[in-house]
Design a protein that fits this description.
361 residues; 0% strand; 70% helix; 2 domains; 16 helices; transport; MetI-like fold; mainly alpha
Length: 361
Amino acid sequence: MAAYIFRRLLLVIPTLWAIITINFFIIQIAPGGPVEQAIAQMQGLGSGVMERLGGGGHDVSLSDEKAGHSGYKGSRGLDPEVVAEIRRQFGFDKPLLERYVEMLKNYATFDFGQSLFKGGDVMTLIKERLPVSISLGLWSTLIIYLISIPLGIMKAIRHGSRFDVWSSAMIIIGYAIPGFLFAILLIIVFASGNYFDWFPLRGLVSDNFEQLTWYQQIGDYFWHLTLPILAMVIGGFATLTMLTKNSFLDEINKQYVVTARAKGLDERSILYQHVFRNAMLIIIAGFPSAFISIFFTGSMLIEVMFSLNGIGLLGFESTIQRDYPVVFSSLYIMTLLGLVLGIISDLTYTWVDPRIDFEAR
């Protein structure tokens, strides 16, 4: 198993390289690079924008080739020297391949350079936002799995019963309600003061968090997370519950279960010693993608509504602003995390079903 894990870890390197390379060159043909963004701001806000660009070049810089010409539409009416200074400030005066090689060298050491528009180090920006995204992604995924797997097993065991019908109806209703709409309902009822004023609407912790005792800090942390996590969980468990049910139903109807029953094994032993291992494989396979989805994309609207500065909101804002160092660093970290979770998922396969042997492959 150690050799298999080592090979998988080695594959992380070319996979990361391929994803970053493809996205780097695709972005070259995307209209509206950061230089055009800066020029548009200058034309609307005046020369004060230049002061916010900071001094010196950046370690990691990406742009489209249009930014390389001072005669494109966005630069009309501006002194060519001003445009050249903007390109130099953003580091876009370098050739494309030089920027690409420089980016690969910096990313290999997790040096993501400076944000083009937000100011400050990209890694610092990501570290500041990580606690919010990790909190939302981790607890939401954990709660969804803790609800969905037992519920799906119960539905499979009681397939066609009144419990199955009513639980399916509730699942469909929960799935039909968008998370952001449920968040609005939670805010109106429990946080606006119109009905109740039980939960906060801003931040991950209170302003006096450092002055609280350790158990008060834990309570304050979950007090702030209650409504956002509820909003993310409400529609997230429907798909996993039905997947669990269908997976168990498929296994329960197989010949080896009929044989086990004929030998006199009780239903509990059949379910948890035989069916469980086989049925859980497809559920475990979907964990990395489910976690990454919630971690980076599913929480963006929730972050906005509850004033939580997470990775999802940072990535969206950076994409709109064409802040390529932030966009590519978020992509890099997301890809790396997904690949590591994929390896962990394979290890979980062997834990659930020891008969699986990746070395034999």
